[in-house]
Amino acid sequence: MLRFNSHRLPYQKRYQLLQQVKNEVKQSRLQSPHRAVLTQLAQETPPLRMRRIWDIEAKVGNRPSFRLSSNCGIIPVFDRIGGKLLILGGTGAGKTTTLMGLAKVLVKRAIKDNGEPVPILLNLATWTDSEQSIENWIIDQLKIKYNIPAEIGKDWLENLQILPLLDSLDEVGNNQHNQCILKLNEFLSSDVCPLHLVVCSSVEVYHHCEAVLQLNGAILLRPLTKKQIRDYLMNARSRELWNNIAEDESLLKLAKKPLLLSMMTLAYEEILISSWKRLETFKEQRQYLFNAYIRSQIAPHREQSTSRKNWEERNLETVRQGLEWLAKRLEEENKSEFSIQEISPSWLQDFEQEKKYKIGVKFISGLIWWGIVAFIAIGVIVRSIWVVLGGMILGIIWAAIYKRFAINDWIKQFVLRSFLSLKGYLPWQTNQFLDTATKRLLLQKVGRRYRFIHRLLQHHFSQL
Fold it and tell me: In the chain, helix, strand, coil percent, each to 5?
């Protein structure tokens, strides 16, 4: 296997990056509806069947395609084609889950062997400038997501120390999918082309593009078969659900997508089968399923309350409303991930709200400074040199803190979150809100960043 010169990647930085990616993979797998089915319904502790339940068809070069058995991972294909792989599948077919499974193996390899490149998980939806090179985009994302300075990221790329795992080609905005493929091909033929590269895309979007990715092979995630659906539901102790959908072709079509099958299994108590079956289109039936899933996940828990759960029980409707507002803002900016720090004034609804926000920031800042001036003025009035000196020292300390710790940014965040809370957009207890939505499998938390469990659910929330 081709090796690179690992001395240029400091051990501590390498270890930190590997731990970040390792935790990201672990969190993604733990916070999935599929795992919830295994632990809550199938009652597997620990869940031993996290392996995929769908078939995979692999294509290497010009050779005939072949099918991988359910107990065979994609790592043999990855190795066989030199690590340059395209993962295709329908929406909700398990592409990200497959990518995470691959990342888990690659992280283990990199931890065990310093000669292996470090895998990084990036979302192509964040590539928003059609003229930006993939090299520069990766360097930017290393800084934004993993806090790697640009000069270090550039050095790592040039020395083949990074293994990019790129998800969501189909989510690139403004119909720039074809342009993104062209940029990826430029990257693949450049001097900084990594030893390995993996790209995920929906098969529908990819087949509508004129350009073809210059990779060594591809795998296609096949829809679930009727037998696979039955076995999954029997294992999840959901015989009644199986009996209700077994002879209904439209509902079976939904169940062929692993994401939707897991969601319907978890949401079954909120589904009225007769109403569901009367819906005429796939889209209507999927919307009904999403609504049932949301109701099931935001329903009160029958557990003994703690103070944290008390907040959850009192604010379940607020959580739902907050997710609707959040989804709308993410859709407007074509984003799928965010952090609390990224909630910005641009998310306000109109110019009038932005004006009130700016007034609030100036008022709070002015209040603090005028408070210090008033303190000094009182000292002058009462002729107390100690009060005057105290006010001056307080002013100097405040000025130093203001500059050193970016207090102005803190004031802006405080005013913005207060404004959003008063308007009913986001709860004031933003961290509790996000953690509640994560625990109830509506969001996923990756480090300090959050995303909906799937872009489909984000889009659904934005339309409510």
Answer: 60, 10, 30
